[in-house]
Amino acid sequence: MLNGQFSCDYGYNIEVGKNFYMNFNGVILDCGKVVIGDNVMIGPNVTLCTAGHPLDIKTRNTGEEFAKPVTIGNNVWIGANVLVLPGVTLHDGAVVGGGSVVTKDVPADCVVVGSPARVVRKEINLQSSM
Fold it and tell me: Which domain of life does the protein's organism represent (predicted)?
């Protein structure tokens, strides 16, 4: 389910599982594949970005681009104003705190926050079942 404004590059590179929710102003730059699992909740103003450009000025000025996939596992919660960069995987049960910039893969059942996002709590789903 999408709530409010949503933007994407192509749309056909996006796969979404069951029980998906994306709040207002969601952006998915799907030059590469974006796979979203089941029971995923995404807050407002979140960008999932597969597109990138070379760091080298001469190469970048040629217009060269690249795309790396973004994968979001099952039972993931992404807070408001998060940016997920190309090539990142958010593993099952991950939670991304609002305002984070996710530059690296997020382990399962962990909370990450910050810019760049870093793990601040591990094994959250194991702790909640005790």
Answer: Bacteria
**Residue 2 has what pLDDT?**
72
Instruction: Enter the pTM of the model.
Output: 0.91
Confirm whether 91 is a catalytic residue: no
Question: CA-CA distance, 102 to 96, in Å (whole number)?
Answer: 8
CB atoms under 10 Å from CB of 114, counted, come to 13
Q: What is the pLDDT of residue 123?
A: 82
Sole residue written with tokens 């993931």: 76
Residue 130: predicted pLDDT: 45
Query: What separation in angstroms does the CA of 108 have from each of 49, 67, 88, 114, 130?
Result: 20, 24, 13, 17, 18
Q: Which residues pair with 71 in a beta bridge?
A: 35, 89
Of the residues 53, 60, 121, 122, only one is catalytic, namely 53
Coil, strand or helix at 49: strand
Q: How far apart are CA 20 and CA 65, in angstroms?
A: 30
Residue with tokens 């450009």: 53
For the chain, what is the total number of helices (H) and then of strands (E)?
2, 17
Residue 88: phi, psi to the nearest 5? -90, 140
